[in-house]
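User: Before I run my own analysis I want an independent prediction to cross-check against. Here's the chain; please return only the structure tokens and, at the end, one sentence I can use as a sanity check.
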Amino acid sequence: MSLELVCETTHSDAGDELDGLHFTAVIGGRRLYFQAIPSQARFRITMARAWERRTEALGSVIRLGTAEPGLRVCAPMEVEWAEQHAQNIVAEAVSIWASITRGCEA
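Assistant: Structure tokens:
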């Protein structure tokens, strides 16, 4: 799995350094985008639909600040695929979370 920063912080006026951060990873042959949600230990996950030139919501990885993060899927047609790749999706989200929050705790 590869990790790539897609864009820098875009909403610093909200006071949350994670607001607007987007990352991408290829998991199970699909490009997934991980978007930080301001003031929450979670990422919104969307999937690239290259043939349609758009993205589609997959769900969220929640509880990133705990020992039990989890994937919540909101795309009914993608539940089976997401279940097959849930461990990798969650592991990637945890890795991204650790890299962007490293040094944030005083």
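Sanity check: The CA atoms of residues 19 and 70 lie 21 Å apart.
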